[in-house]
Amino acid sequence: MRARDRAAVSALRGTLAALDNAEAVPVDAAPSAGAIEASPVGVGAAEAPRRALSEADVVAVVRAEIEERQAAAAQLTSPTHAERAARLHAEAEVLRRLLDESEATA
């Protein structure tokens, strides 16, 4: 990251955001507020606990991010979008390498 590899930074930021979204509790599962007098009181009392993702869930999210980038790059067929398509392919490759490395060490 020190060399400011833009493709890696962009891919990792996007994937971390996707993992954060995957940990979020669905809106219908969150506790409802109800009456004011029954509301929780104190710092953090109204926060819903986040879901814990298994390793398989994390791998599935990363694979979905790879596929999403490849599909988006495939849509950019115009020569004016060649740079953006190349960047999306590079981001997908970064994620694929990280996924391969983690599977090799597991």
Automatic annotation (TrEMBL):
Gene3D superfamilies: Uncharacterised protein YqeY/AIM41 PF09424, N-terminal domain
Superkingdom per UniProt: Bacteria
Name of the protein in question: Uncharacterized protein
